Amino acid sequence: MLDINLGLLLFVAVLFLALVYILDKLLYKPLLSFMDKRDAMIRKDLEASKEMGSEAEEALQEAHDTIAAAKAEAMKIREAEVAKAKEKAASLVASVQTEIEEQYSAFAQKLIEERSKLKKSIEANLPKYQELIQSKLKQIS
Questions:
Q1: CB under 8 Å to 122, separation ≥6 — which residues?
Q2: HSE toward the beta carbon, residue 117, CA cutoff 13 A
Q3: What's the pTM value of the predicted model, to 2 decimals?
Q4: How far is C-alpha 40 from the geometric centre of its chain's CA atoms?
Q5: Quick one: CA torsion of 82, 83, 87, 89, rounded to 10 degrees?
Q6: CA distances for 15 relative to 7, 22, 24, 26, angstroms
Q7: Tell me: the pLDDT tens digits for 6-57?
Q8: How far apart are CA 50 and CA 46, in angstroms?
Q9: How far apart are CA 97 and CA 90, in angstroms?
Q10: Could you tell me which residues come within 8 angstroms of residue 129 by beta carbon, excluding any fewer than 6 positions away?
């Protein structure tokens, strides 16, 4: 039957324990150390990415705020320029209207003077016109 050889059993046990010790020193500890370092690096990178994500969100919010402020400032400037342009146009219209009124007054005054001159001319030449009309009437009859 099967004989158990105690020396061989002891040799295999020592060899097994030596192999486990060598594998532990050369393979398992460096592998576990590498895996722990890798896990720590992954955690560190995740924290850094979260921090960068929050920084990016803050920068994005700051950019949006800056853009909104710039738009508001541009709107104020635009409104101020529109108000200036309206004011300038109103003053220009008022000056043109004043000039037109002055020209109209001058024209009306000139027209009154011309009318007066014409009336005087007609009144001065009225006897002459009456004679001409009477002579024409005598020729017709």
A1: 129
A2: 6
A3: 0.44
A4: 46
A5: 20
A6: 12, 10, 14, 16
A7: 999 999 999 999 999 999 999 999 999 999 999 999 999 999 888 888 888 8
A8: 6
A9: 10
A10: 122
- How many whole angstroms separate alpha carbon 113 and alpha carbon 108? 9
pLDDT tens for each residue of 100-124: 999 999 999 999 999 999 989 888 8
What are 103's two structure tokens? 């020209």
Q: What is the pLDDT of residue 1?
A: 59
Quick one: tokens of 62? 């700051």
pLDDT value of residue 3 = 80
Amino acid at 78: R
* Residue 113 structure tokens: 């003077």
